[in-house]
Amino acid sequence: MNNDYAALLNTVREEENSVVAAWLNEAQVDEPGARRAAQAEAADIVRHLREGLQTGVDPARLDSSGWAGLRETLTGLSKSRAAKGQTAADTSLFVLAFKKPLFAAIQRRLGADAAAMSNALWTVSTVVDALAQHTVGAFQQAREEIIRRQQEELLELSTPVVKLWDGVLAVPMIGTLDSSRTQLVMEALLQKIVETGCELAIIDITGVPTVDTLVAQHLLKTVTAIRLMGADCIISGIRPQIAQTIVHLGIDLQGVRTKATLADALALALKQTGWRVSRDN
Known about the structure:
InterPro entries: Bact_StressResp_Reg, RsbRD_N_dom, STAS_dom, STAS_dom_sf. Keywords: Phosphoprotein. This is STAS domain-containing protein. It comes from Variovorax robiniae. The chain is rod-shaped. It has eleven helices and five strands; from the N terminus they run H-H-H-H-H-H-H-E-E-H-E-H-E-H-E-H. Helix 1 (about 5-15) crosses helix 3 (about 30-55), helix 1 (about 5-15) packs across helix 7 and helix 4 (about 70-85) crosses helix 7. It has a five-stranded mixed sheet, sandwiched between helices. The longest helix is centred in the middle third of the chain and has 45 residues, at about 115-160. By secondary structure, the protein is an alpha/beta fold.
């Protein structure tokens, strides 16, 4: 290990507690609960930085096995803060606040040797920048995972399978249909058919703004899957504009029963399943 890294190693090894305390002060973490959490995070980073430096692996190679512990700590820090709704900038600034206490410690150690101190300070700056950069990347991945999971949850909420009557299920579709959403609808509907033993499903597209060739293909795939399960299907919500669009596009819905409204589809479903509904006078 060169002398620059040796100075950094000696600093984090011999002055860990004072460096962590100065780091928290620099990051302006004052609230007691937040300070305790930040102190644990900072101590873990300092410890894994020390362990990595002791292996002799260049910190510039942060992706090497010698720095696995430090990478995991930084990733955990990013995930935790992303889950709390903090920003990538705030997380990066917390890591960058590590510089000042390290600079102060290096200056105390090497103040008599200007050249050595200058080289060591540059090394510290480079290392901490690498840590902050890794943190930003990990934070972005964590946020993307959170967003993806939230999107899946919203899709599940936006495609409920409702039992309208004995033997009749309905799926009210709202918004644009795409492959992933169609897959969720198909899986939820087929699972509900298995659980309830219903013989007929209504797919209501009143809330679908437009129907193009791709949307029609998704609907036909869903209808085919339902029929393979031994059930039948009615598509409701065929408004005049959608009907014209389907005709202009030359989409073949032959063999698929359609109705203008969900009420009409339910009336047909009840008739097909042998129910008769009458009004008491």
